[in-house]
Amino acid sequence: MTDARGPARPDGERPARHAPGTPCWVSLTVRGPAAAQEFYGALFGWEFRAGPQRLGPCLRALLDGHEVAGIGRLPPDRRLPVAWTPHFASDEVDVTAGRARLCGGTIGVGPLDVPGAGRLAICSDPAGAVFGIRRAAPCPGPSVAGGPGAPAWNELLTFEAESVAKFYRTVFGFAQEPVVRADPDYVTLHLDGRPVAGIRGVGSALPRDRGPHWMTYFEVTDADDAVARLVHLGGHVLGPLRDGARGRVALVADPEGARFSLLQRPEAVPAGRSGG
């Protein structure tokens, strides 16, 4: 995940606040949190502790002692797909959520205060992809900025990129900068000149049981080894390993069907280049 937080403090730690619009959190909703805890703990080396319970049972995943993701339980009466959801930082969640509604989005949850987590809202864009808006509560130390086991990138898969990109640019103030790509229907969203998320238009190739949705990429040291470990743990490989703009990528799903990607970064990136 692009690190767009404020400047480092004199002691070398970064403040907990993320710049508005930055992907600042990812959450997973599942039917079996205990099984998800076992799967992701073995896959990424995560440890867990109880999280805020206002929206139902919740776990916080930790990597090297720092929170990297949340796992919650789907209500048994809700027929929703299990899915990873990115949350974007906002200093004024109510204002940002109101702007999303005015631009054609839908507010599914909140805005509301969650003790220990801050103020948040769960929304969907005009095409139906779900995302969160979050003003995080202060935390005692720096969060993980990257590395194996941490979220590294978020990408929206939707019918057509540009029309949905206008929504996110208006809601969060993203900029669109020219990026040369082989994929003609791809938009990279920027903050302060840095890429923070991507939007890929795939048209009719969208899974019928999913529709438009956000995809979280988790960094791994070795993609081939991570895929083998995922399969051993009961996960599913949805596409062959491929080399992309950000590195070696595998599209996968956990045992309940939540889709995500494994990303092995290139060993070296030429100076002056940035992914998108």
SSE order and pairing:
Elements: E1 23-30, H1 33-44, E2 47-50, E3 58-63, E4 66-73, E5 83-89, H2 93-102, E6 106-114, E7 118-124, E8 130-135, E9 151-158, H3 161-172, E10 175-176, E11 186-191, E12 194-201, E13 213-219, H4 223-232, E14 236-237, E15 242-244, E16 247-253, E17 259-264
Parallel strand pairs: 1-4, 5-8, 9-12, 13-17
Antiparallel strand pairs: 1-5, 2-3, 3-4, 6-7, 7-8, 9-13, 10-11, 11-12, 14-16, 15-16, 16-17
Helix pairs in contact: 2-3
Spell out the key features of this protein:
276 residues; alpha+beta; 2,3-Dihydroxybiphenyl 1,2-Dioxygenase, domain 1; 2 domains; nine-stranded mixed sheet; eight-stranded mixed sheet; globular; disordered N terminus; disordered C terminus; Glyas_Bleomycin-R_OHBP_Dase; VOC family protein
